[in-house]
Target: glucan 1,3-beta-glucosidase
Amino acid sequence: MILKLLFTITLFFKVISSTPVPPKSSDSVQFYEKRYYDYSANEPIRGLNIGGWLVLEPYITPSLFEAFGDDVPVDEYHYCQTLGRDEAAIRLLEHWGTFYTEEDFKQIASLGFNLVRIPVGYWAFKTLESDPYVSGVQEIFLDEAIAWSKKYGLKVWVDLHGAAGSQNGFDNSGLRDAVNFLNYSENINITSEVLEYILQKYSAESYADTIIGIELLNEPLGPSIDLDKLKNDYYIPAYDYLRNTLNSNQNIIIHDAFEAYNYWDDFLTLEDGAWGITIDHHHYQVFSTGELATTMDEKIQTACQWGTGVLSEAHWTVAGEFSAALTDCTKWLNGVGIGARYDGSYVKGSDTSYYQGSCDNNEDITSWSDERKQNTRRFIEAQLDAFEMRGGWIFWCYKTETSIEWDASRLIEYGLFPQPLTDRQYPGQCSN
Ligand SMILES: *[C@@H]1O[C@H](CO)[C@@H](O)[C@H](O)[C@H]1NC(C)=O
Ligand SMILES: *[C@@H]1O[C@H](CO)[C@@H](O)[C@H](O)[C@H]1NC(C)=O
Model:
């Protein structure tokens, strides 16, 4: 009887002590034995994005899209719709099984990176009746990638990159041009169901030493959507589900939605009892004519401000996407059928651009001037310095079929990306 009582009391305390409570100070973070990954107490995130793999992007794997000749589908949705699900499945299975393999994860770890961010669309898990997507297979590859990451000591962010109806109208959300995620409750419902599945599955104890963040949604287009609706109908229910239904101490990652620094400071705050939130900022300087036209010194200055800009933010921050791009010349970077602003060939609606320089031979390193190479290395180093002022960085992408500016593996091969990652040819760019 007494033994049984003791057992019950012990069990009671076990249950109590395993229930997550918000950390009051950095000391109490130690109570989070495994899962609660304390970004501020560890070395900066130095990561890579596994872009263009489980979510197609024409500029990352142009060969998949060039196969269509003159009538190129603009995104994965139309890729699958044009081919039909059976043929799309054959081609996508080939892509998923070859574009990334165990060797890549081994290589990523040996180059000194410590994390991979893996984008996946809602359609990998569940589809709307009207969807043409291939579904139900990506998960096998995702799980394999997580297992390889674990094997080679890499941490993982699982990143929900596409919501039903699209959260931004970018091709990388699966469906280009429309932004209808929050307009129809069936879109919110199916995306939330998928998110709950992801939260539940990838917060399991067996993943605790590997998966240190789940990104609720990539790049919702803040200025075009109802952010209060996003918070109330999507983010808060997901947070609630994670902490109160799953009782998990998983970290959640929230993209800044293209809002200014400090915008998220009063959302899911410690004062409200919320915790384990990291804000993900993405930074590029090639998606407007004005940014492309700045001088190299101005670009470096902007990059350094990306570092100082987040220092006062209430939540922990990581720069979850950035690149080496000083031009937007990579074919289809702006989307299939849309040219480059850099050489003035950009045509989209009433947007115009003007000639700033040639995009010819952009992907041939032997055609790059020494100055361009130096500028690229300078730009990368300044960004790493800036982002390491706080939580670190995740470069977009590890590899592409043909691009240089978006491909860490090629940049490393050409000596434009530091090896080791802490090496600097241009030290102290952000400390002046
Ligand atoms: C979405 O979910 C809500 C809440 O469960 C439900 O009331 C609504 O009918 C659903 N919408 C659709 C289109 O299924
Ligand atoms: C979708 O929602 C946005 C933001 O609330 C609104 O501006 C837009 O008109 C809506 N689109 C449709 C098709 O209802």
